[in-house]
Amino acid sequence: MIVVCEYMSPGGLARLQESGLGVFYDPELWKDRAALKAHLAGALALIVRNQTRVDAELLAAAPHLRAVGRLGAGLDNIVQPDLEARGVVLCHARGLNATAVAEYVLAAMLHLARNLAKAAAHVAAGGWDRSAFGGFELAGKTLGLLGLGEVGLRVARRARALGMRVLAADPARQPWEAVVEDLGIELCEVPQLLARARFLSLHAPLTPETRYLIRAETLTQMPRGAYLINTARGELVHSADLAKALWEGHLAGAVLDVVEPEPLPESHPLRGVPNLYITPHIAGLTAEAQEAVGLWVAEGVLRALGVEA
Question: Hey, what domains does the chain have and what are their CATH numbers?
């Protein structure tokens, strides 16, 4: 039996069902940990997204488990040493939603620059003030990328096509790398990135060093009127400090697809903040990305269980 306790694309689910191993699919099962444990008693594999914490406590309820599939790139909810201790294979879809996330970042920059939603709402309310919604062009503006992995590179390629200057800070990258040279990306240290970027887009992993990297101290290093976009991890940003920077007008706006915690509580400091746009962790959820991720994870789990394609 393969247990899928969060949403999985139809194609990926169909591939699992073709295997003949038996599939229990309930995209809401993650909400009831006791019920999930009960279903894992005879399971050979478990497939999750980002809501289910897979740790020793959960694995103890799954004595026959041989594989865990993660429908996405991040592994914050997977305690990998616990899987390794049990000999459980981990299959995840790193990078398959990179194009979707990159296009989200592009959409966020265009929204911040032109704000079509506010202009449309103005007209819907009976207005026609053309001088209030001209916005500005992305061409010639500087984009700073904090992290230059698969998503960051795709963002850089698209931003360069629009005529933007692109800076990046990533200790794993070197200026002589072909991809960095070909895309015309200028590598720099984080303080330089913060000081020069009109748009700052976060693409760093969550580590002890990057937790709350964007906080009062670093926000003040950004130019007044700059914009922040975060599609990486909510914990990269100190929420209260970001709210203060927006309320005081130091930042002109921000788009967050990830927050801490998720979902956002009613009493959270980011509620009601001006020029802040929060989406429910959807950057990588295009139909194309989800189908690719679902198929990739399904095939990986089946291989781990000894099922040939």
Answer: 2-94+287-304 (3.40.50.720), 98-278 (3.40.50.720)
